[in-house]
Structures are given as structure tokens and as C-alpha cells.
């Protein structure tokens, strides 16, 4: 059975790293090898009885010593060794072997090291293949540096799963030109790999981990390796860990890793390709990429990238993430619905390291163009966005007026350019003459929106525009105007009738959404939730009122600041307030159901003030979705929770409203989707955290299973207050 590839052309001594330019040495042939007695002695009868196996068959553990003593010096035939056990205790053979082993181009169907250490130097198992046999390759308490492994493949695949090597030291190993496959490598003892040589080797489905401890790498060569499905689970590259020339596909990080000691000379883009497993679902997307929603711990992947000192790698990995936003369905959907995810990724795209990346620049500009027209942009990006807008031409500024208007009052250069554009300059002069005069400091400037297709324009006072954006208040001081071109160009007012206002706002989607959202006041919902008469002391009453006022301020956008309600006392207090809505005791279920019905009716009444497009039952569906989304998002870290916990009472309310929705309109939401939503609120296992913010984003993008589903979704998006 010829299973051995051609030998490599170099033999680098163990525990040393050779310069790539040094001429290689041939692997030594094992001649005149003697074996010292083993603790498991082989008898003369064994030697006589098994002579035929020595010459023709597979070699068992008890035959290895005889093979080394009698046959290896003149042996040229490739052998298969089956279930060879090196160990200090037990009856397995060759057991506590005390000699030197030198084998080249051999095949092992089961090679095991357990509490074993070679006592002599100079051991070699080169250019060989080692696979699982009767057992997995679960090596334990073994020092790999005691053997030269050049050119050897170690494949731990056993019954379709990788083998786990525990307390196996890889420091000073030389397995250059070899392969490690299907292995989980754990070393809780030393928690370190140093002076190791993996150069020109192949790593396939290999995981390095020390559990909750860092697995430290120092002065280790991964030069010219080829790898696929390589996993670093809390790995720290301390210093001089060389990946020059490495080609890695699907590099996966589990937990935080520190790559500050990474070396990669002349790095070429896509040489190290990240694993899309990190964005395989909503929970992973949130964990790895959403630094806004994980404000304390940060996004794992971005934190890891920030430890990389090589800009080319940092940019390359960010480019891969950008490509994922359009090529991986789950991330693409999350990107569309989650404002915090977009902010997290876009913030990275404004890093000065990206200046020469055409892909990132194009992606960033497209985002500004798309979302600047439809969204209020986060303050964390304002400075970078202003810098970008300063270099745009007039047509770009006209196409992105909502974006420009957010910075009119703060950036003089941008303001000067925008107000010079015709006919905005004329409209500005007219407003200043007929509506208000700029003060002498020149720091009050009108917000102007101009529809270049028909010459219509809107003026909003700076104060009202600010309140619309920041506090959800409908403007009071505004006017509709029309620019009439010609030889006697002039500007006229026209009445702000509701249909005319609506017609104008449709040309500016973000302005239209803000205006619509501000017109519906959902504060009475919070008042109803907190209307129970409870026997509380003065401190509890004061705290209850403070929580209530904060939730109302969130709905009216008078505040976006978080208020953590995760302490034991706060949880009990909020639970006592809201419990009547989700009580499960037999004597309280009917009352709870009636209260939830009244909550839906109240929400429908608020929606009816702004929309007659839906039937009553469709409005109730929209009301359910609004309330579920509100309760979930309020409980999240964005507002009242922390990464590890969130107010249970709000999650309980959202959870039972999901059940009510399923019952109210059978089929409008399938049971699988409803189950996923409920799991976001209450994960099935104890070490998982609630994903309330993810659920809120999901509901915002979800399309109900009904003919009017798109209208319902639009209402939920348009009137959602947070």
C-alpha cells in the first residue's frame, strides 16, 4: 500500500527555525538502530510465532521493538503499524518504550501517546501518515518536540469528528512540510506554543484552544502554510508569529483573540480569508460585528482586527466584511434592518487606513447616498461625513439635501457651498427678508429643502428642524414656497394644505418618515402599562415614576439615553407593575387577557389618528407588532438592559403578545418564526443572553403573511417611535 508522498527536500532540526534560503538537508535513514528494553518485554516465543507478520503483515504494538531491532536496518518495504500505544502505565505495547525510534515513510493506523515522554533525543517519524485507528488520536501529556515530524501527516478524523489532544506540548515542534488535520489542540498546562516550526505545512480543520485562558504563541513559524477551517479560540500571538506567504481559507475566531504579534511580510489581499461562520446567524452577527449594540464588550471581530498591526491585513479583512454584506443572506438582511449594525460597520469604513481601498470607498459613498436620504445619521459619524461632503459636487449636495441639512448649522464650508447653489441662494435670501433675519453672529441658518423637478421648496426653522430630528416633534415654523424661473424670476408662498404638504414630503423620504412618526403619540400606552394601583413605599413609588417617565421620554424622543433596569430591586419593581398583563395563575389569566386587549385597542386608536389605509383587524396586527417591538427594544442594551441581561418584565410582555398575535390571526405569522422570536427573548440554555435588540430589528423588517402584509409593515416602520 503506497500511501506516502515524495519526501520533502529539507530536514530542519526540532526546536529550531531555519532561514528559508538555507539549503535543505535530507532526512536521515534509520540504520543500526537499537532499542532499549521496554517495560512491556516481548518474549522469544513472540518473535518466533510472529515472524511471518514481521515480514508480510501489519505490525502491532508488540512487534515494534523487534522491527526496530531486527528488520529496520535492512528494511526497505513500507509498513502499516496498527494501534501502537506509547504509555507509562498499562499493558498496551510498546508501552513505556525507552529507546529511540526512527521511522520514515510509514503508515500508522492508530498511534497513541498517553502520559509518555521519550527519554532519548533523536527520535524521528518523518514523511509518514498517522491516522486514527481503533480509537481517536486523543493524545495526552506528550511533548511533540521529542520527535522530528518533518513531512508527516497527522489526521485525527475519527467517526466523522476531530480528535482532541490534551496537555500536548507543541513548543519546539518541527512539522514543516507536514500536515495537521481534524484536531482540537488543547494545552492547559503550558498554555503556550513557542519556537515551533509549522512552515510549509498544511492545517486542515484544526482548532487551537485553552478554554477561557489565552493560548499564547511566540517565535513560531507559519511561513508558507496552507490552511482551511483553522480556528483560533482565544489565541494570543505574543511576538514574532510569522504568517508570511500563508494561504488560509476560513479563519475562524471563537472568543476574543489578540494578534498583535502577527508578522506577514508583503501580505497580498485575500491571502487570509475569514470564515463566514462568524456571521452565520443574527446572534453571531450581533456578537462579531455590532459594536454599538455591545457597547461594553465591543464587537469581537473588530476588536480582534484592532490588535493587528499590519494595515494591509486590517483593510483586507474589512473589505471581506463589506463583501459579505451583499453576498451572505443573513448579514445582508441584518444590514438592511439594523441601524446599529450599519453604524458599527460604516464607522470602520471611515478609518484612515481605508483611504486607498476603492472597494471600501465605493461602499461608504453608496451608503451615504442611500441612507443619507432616508435616515438620521449617528453623531459618531458626523465629522467623517462632513469631510466627505466637502469634496462632493453641487449635484451630489442637491441629491442629498436631508444629509446636508443635518450639518448646515455646524460646518461653515459646507453651508457656504450649499447656499451658493442656484436657486437655493435666492430662496435663502427671500426667507431671510420675509421670515427672519440672521443674527449678527451669523449662526442661525434656515433649513431648506428644494425639489428641483418642480421648483417647490420647504423652509423649516433651525429650532424646529432640530426638534424634529432629535425629539420627534412636528415642526410648527415652516413654509412651502415655489421658485418660478424666467426673466423675472420670483419666489412665492403657497398654502400648506395637508395634501400639498404630503405631496412635497414624499420627495424627501427621511423628512417624511420623521414628520409622520412625530404625529403619533404613543405615550398613553406607557401610562396605561403603569396604571396599576400598587402598595409601594415612597422610594418604590419614586423609582416607578422615574422608570415610567423615562420610557415615555424614549417614545417621544425627548431622550435616547439608556437607563439600566437590570438590578434585582428594579426587576422586582417593574415585574410588580407589569405582571398583571402576563399573569398565568388561573384566577388572573382572564384579567390579563382583557388588559392586553385594552392595550391593543388603545394602540389602534393612536394609529387611527394617522392612517385609514388598513382595516381594523390589520391595524390590530400592526399594533401587536409595534408593542412587541417596543417592549423588546426597550428591554435591550440600547435602552434599559445590559449585554448579559435585560428587564424580564418587558420581555414577558413581548413574549405573551407574540402568542396573542398567533392566536388573533392564524397564519399571519408561522410557528417557526414565532418560535424564533420567543427564543430571542428567552434563550433555551442558561449560558445564552437575550437578543431583544435583534428581535426588534427583525420585526421592523418582517413581512406579515397576508395580502395587506406590505401595508402593515410600512405602518410599523413609519410609526415606530424608537
From TrEMBL:
| UniProt keyword list | Plasmid
Query: Which residues lie in Polar residues bias regions?
Result: 17-41
Has keyword Ion transport?
no
Q: Where is this region: Disordered?
A: 1-41
InterPro entries to which the protein is assigned, alphabetical = SopA-like_cat (IPR025725), SopA-like_catalytic_sf (IPR038270)
Q: What residue stretches are annotated with the E3 ubiquitin-protein ligase SopA-like catalytic domain?
A: 623-699
**GO MF, one example:** ubiquitin-protein transferase activity
Tell me the GO BP annotations in alphabetical order: protein ubiquitination
Q: What is this protein called?
A: E3 ubiquitin-protein ligase SopA-like catalytic domain-containing protein
Organism the protein comes from? Pantoea phytobeneficialis
